[in-house]
Amino acid sequence: MNAKDRILECALDELERAGTAAFSLRAVAVAAGLTPMAVYRHYANREELLAAAGAAAFAAWAARVESIKAKNPFDWLRKAARAYALFALDEPARFDACFTLQTSVERIYPRDFAAGKSPVISRVMGQLREAGLAGGKADDALELSLFFWAELHGLAMLHRSGRFAMPRADFLALCDRAALRLIGVPPAHKS
Description:
Tetracycline Repressor, domain 2, 2 domains
């Protein structure tokens, strides 16, 4: 891994550890085994490194979504929900850089989403429309995609904060059921 990539990985870890308010280039440099001046050779300032970390995190999230293969929109939405939960569990630093911290590259509801600046939300909106769930107004798909995301985000944050006493597999199954309920597909019940 080259120095710039190592700095970016350490920046993501530092963001997860300290948040944006306490984010420090010096701490990133120490974690990367470099001097602070070496960090400045690759990133002009703290804000540029934060933006790069945010962009890398969103790229990782978008790659997960782009890899989803599904037979129909309902299956795609369920798989997207699972991908979100897995992203929160498996890549917490990137998840936080995308969805809990301010790095200056996050999208703002509703303007950025309505303008199509979020490829993932645009894809969710398209799947909701294809499934016939978006209603008749233009804003229906946008609002429903917000509710879909907010439900999953809430579950992910509650699980990560230790509020659920359940194994990983049970949590992922809960997210699957939540996604199905949100899109109006009753989950199968075990007898």
